[in-house]
Amino acid sequence: MPDPVNLCDEAVDAFAGKPISSLVIPRESVPQVRASLIVLALMPLYMQHMQLQHGGKPVVGDQVVIVESDPAEIRDTGPADSETVEAAAVARQQEIARCLAIYYMRPVDADSLRPWSIMHGLLAYGQESRVVSRGKLVSALEYLCSNQLGNDRRLLNTTDGRLNANIGPGVQGHPGQFLAMLAQSDVPIDQQIVVDGRRFTVRDLIEAEKLGCRAKTELTFRLIGLSHYLRTTARWKNSLGEEWSIDRILREELAQPVNGAACGGTHRLMGISYAVRMHELDGGELDKLWKSAEKYVSDYHKYTFSLQNTDGSFSTEWFERKDASRSAKKRVYTTGHILEWLAWSLPDDQLDDPRLTRAVDYLTNLLLNAPGYEVDIGPRGHALRALRIYQERTAGKSDYAALLPDEERLQAKVRPVKKAVQPESGSDNAANASHQGGIPLFRGGSTGRRR
Question: Which of the 8 DSSP states describes residue 446?
Answer without folding.
Answer: -
